[in-house]
Write a sequence for this structure.
């Protein structure tokens, strides 16, 4: 059974293996990322590999988690907390800017992995469920705060709004990747904003009912 490292050296070794695997997956795809290739890239032996990861599947699921970390690190507004419609606009602008910086190459890192791994088994699919939940969580938390303050209609589902937003991001990134046009992300997020806008309370009658 693989073990979580308890020392700084162990954590560094595990991180090195994980980062090597993530780079190889990005460059070669999941199918061509073998244990031997990861070992060579990370400069570790097989015993070290299996000390930290049960098998290749376990390693790939860990890559999913590391990919989420990287995606969230690129979304400063979301990580710091979405607390208004203006924050959502700034977050959307960050997502669009990231797509332009990458020239739309690669699409969404999480979506790309999901297309290769989500049907592998239920445990791996569950890792993607968790991945997207982590991505949505700051948005849901922000929408809930707005709803409590009466800025968002009490009768809308914040989870549904987050799902609509995530679907727009994924669809926009996919079209941008295929067409090599980052403007597809902007258009998709403009659609998401149009879907979100009616949920924002326009007057006191639309806010949460008094108790």
């Amino acid at each position: 059974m693989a073990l979580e490292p308890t020392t700084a050296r162990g954590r560094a070794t595990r991180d090195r293996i994980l980062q090597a695997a993530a780079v190889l997956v990005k460059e070669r795809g999941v199918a061509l990322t073998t244990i031997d290739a990861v070992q060579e890239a990370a400069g570790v032996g097989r015993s070290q590999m299996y000390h930290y990861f049960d098998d290749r599947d376990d390693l790939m699921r860990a890559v999913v988690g590391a990919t989420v970390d990287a995606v969230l690190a690129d979304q400063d507004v979301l990580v710091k907390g979405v607390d208004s419609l203006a924050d959502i606009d700034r977050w959307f602008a960050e997502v669009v800017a990231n797509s332009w910086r990458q020239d739309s190459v690669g699409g969404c890192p999480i979506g790309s992995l999901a297309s290769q791994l989500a049907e592998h088994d239920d445990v791996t699919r569950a890792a993607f469920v968790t991945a997207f939940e982590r991505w949505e969580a700051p948005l849901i938390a922000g929408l809930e705060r707005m709803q409590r303050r009466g800025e968002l209609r009490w009768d809308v589902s914040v989870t549904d709004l987050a799902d609509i937003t995530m679907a727009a991001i994924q669809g926009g990134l996919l079209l941008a990747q295929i067409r090599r046009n980052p403007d597809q992300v902007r258009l998709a997020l403009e659609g998401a904003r149009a879907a979100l806008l009616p949920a924002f309370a326009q007057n006191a009658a639309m806010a949460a009912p008094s108790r």
In short: The mean pLDDT is 90. The CA atoms of residues 8 and 126 lie 29 Å apart.
